[in-house]
Amino acid sequence: MPKRPRQGGMISLDSETTGLDLRHGARPYYVSTCDEDGCNVSWEWRVDPLTRRVVADRGDLKDLQRKIDGADKIVLQNPKFDFMALSLLFNDYSMELRWDWAKIYDTLLAGHLLASNQPHDLTTMAMVYLQANVQPYEDRLRKVTLAARSWARTNRPDWRQAKEGLPEMPSAKSTVWKYDCWMPRLVHEEGGGDETWETVLSEYGDSDASVTLPLFKRQQQILKQKHLWRIYEERLKVLPVVAAIENYGVTLHAGRLEEKRTEYAEASQDAHRTCLNIAKRYGYELTLPKSGNNKSLTEFVFSEEGMHLPPLKKSKKTGVPSLDKTVLEQYSVTLPRNSKPLMFVTALMGKRKRDTAYGYLESYKKFWVHTEHRDRVWYRLHPSLNPTGTDTLRWSSQNPNEQNISKKEGFNLRYCFGPAPGRVWYSCDAKNLELRFPAYEANEPEMVYLFEHPNDPPYYGSYHMLIFDTLHPKLFAKHGMESKEAYASTWYQWTKNGDFAVQYGAVLESGTADRAYHVPGAQARIQSRFNRIKKLNAQQIAYAEKYGYVETMPDKTVDPDHGYPLWCGRTSYGRIMPTVPLNYHVSGTACWWMMKGMIRCHNYLQDVGDDYHIVMQIHDEQVFDFPDDEATNKPIIEQCMKLMAQGGDDLGVPTPVSCTKHSTTWSTGS
DNA sequence: CGATGTAGCACC
DNA sequence: AAACGGTGCTACATCG
Fold first, then answer.
1. Is 0.90 topped by the overall pTM?
2. Best label site of A137, A153, A330, A405, fewest CB within 10 Å?
3. Running DSSP on this structure, what letter comes out for residue A168?
């Protein structure tokens, strides 16, 4: 007896799309649902092989909407993507997808919460949590799709097969068959393949939907057992926030981008010529790489055929001499003035930096889409933001990455980004977030005093100055707060470098931090002055050794007893790396804080109006895009700052937030 | 020839 | 054994 679909209850939903680049036309063409009896209901739409456009059916979409409306709960693997894809498809047919986030569950968020450093793809999780193997369905689909592509290449050369470099799929890399899984059915209709080609897609799609629901039920059971359910429910709140951020995107100015792109291209070419000319004087026919190294370059730099420079650092894995930024900097301060090698090194450093910047700008052009502004000057990027993209609670960003946009002097790509006409940006960031958490948690008195008294001597809230004084008391006695300017490129800069090394977990024995500080024994001196943080570090390491994970600081409003577990991983000898636990604990807490701020700001801005948006998150910084109206905005942005700072109350640590307004460009100081 | 690994570099 | 944590992206080099 065939099963009849149930009404209500919990269902799972999974869709297959013609690509990942929804803003460039990718759409779902197969949607499968599965209910608690294991009964699949699915829809399949034709893909126009010449244009790759999905030809859906309004009746089907209404059907699907009824299915969505009728369910009490819907489980998806990464619902953000399906939601956005379906919204756009509905939009193509002048319909609006109704979607209630309150009834959505996500197996991806659950997977990260249960095992932050394990794979979270559906196939792996089905195996781990259900001992169910859906890989054969995928293998079969792959095989048949590749065959269908091959048939079409010969018999239907005008079909638009997925491949790297097509403008409608800027994110496509080498593996693209996944975007052509609509092809087997169509090929069979046209006389190729066999009848199994009609069902190979639905068997795959239905198997994914069928496994998603029991997977979630199992995850839910474990989350409850481990007392993580409250944290899970809090995490679910990020889904609509992420969808809204991705949907709105971020604006950039084509003219400013072109200006920078030309500047870097020309300077890079100059540097290129300089390098080749110098090589020529050694009688060496140099071929420079587009980025990084190639054989020609390393041979010229290190061998006797060329400049024969001494190797300063070797690759960890391969042992080849390194020619990275730090090595080039070393050469640039040690090689004789006016020497050919110095000129070469200087030119190469300049070329590399410009090539990197140029490459980023090119990638923005690949991904950008026109905005509603008809002047074709303002474009928009829609990077995807992944809250489970890291082993900690950091979010990752891709296609393109919005979290590595340079703000270096001379390479300030933030200049290209900014508010479109009639808009204004506000950039809010937490002050010393990752330094505050350990200071308060360990109750390190001098540091707490520093953070509590930002306007008082001796350090006026400056953490780096406190450390500077610890390492260079005589210099600080002489110059006070002006040490920052007096030693801007030496002792003060080195203090900052060392502080970051310590913050990111440098262990005393390695001497890494001491080298960064340029002060032998520096880290030991700092640890003896701030021994409570040293103790906190030891506690976190011991905890991780025992349990395999550390927890973020508990959020009183969610679960006063437990934070988010972050698994630390072990070496092949079964030990936790001592550099990891405190770092994960602190950085994870900072990211939890940011997540709380984003949820609060998003919900608040929704109430304010429909034109107030979060546009970016760069770990401890949040960027907002508002209508350009100073008087109206003032209380709104102040409330956003308050809502961000409220995350500190949840954790028991004061976390003040600062804000910068950007009227024309995201770059500061211009 | 495609897949995979590595180096280098941008951000926090 | 490793000792500075987490990412994404590009080009180069090598593997199968």
1. yes
2. A153
3. T
